[in-house]
Specification:
The chain has 91 residues and is α+β, with helices and mostly antiparallel strands. The chain has helices at residues 10-32, 38-66, and strands at 2-7, 75-78, 84-88. Helices cover 57% and strands 16% of the residues. A three-stranded antiparallel sheet has the order 1-3-2, with no helix packed on it. Helix 1 packs antiparallel against helix 2 (38-66). The longest helix has 29 residues, at 38-66. The chain is elongated, with a radius of gyration of 15 Å.
């Protein structure tokens, strides 16, 4: 089930969109990079960790700022075109 629980500003949407695209790009790179290239592999692992942390901090900060409804078994999603935030659950 998907339910609208809020909206963010265009600037806030731009922040999470950049992190989202970066995280996806790093995940794609991880599929083709092997640990044999140790320096690049270590940089990728570090970058993935930092990006993941920033991504989660954005969601935590916005949820706190806007007091979005949430559930233990759910997660939030954003519509990048409308800036709407949805609570997605398995119900």
């Amino acid at each position: 089930m998907k339910k609208i629980v809020g909206q963010v500003t265009v600037e806030e949407k731009n922040e999470i969109q950049l992190l989202f695209e970066r995280r996806n790009g790093l995940n794609e790179l991880a599929k083709i990079l092997t640990p044999e290239n140790d320096a690049l592999y270590q940089k990728l692992v570090k970058d993935m960790g930092e990006t993941g942390t920033k991504f989660q901090q954005w969601w935590d900060g916005m949820a706190d700022k806007y007091q979005w409804e949430g559930t233990v078994d759910g997660h939030w999603e954003i519509n990048f075109e409308t800036c709407e935030i949805f609570l997605v659950t398995n119900n």
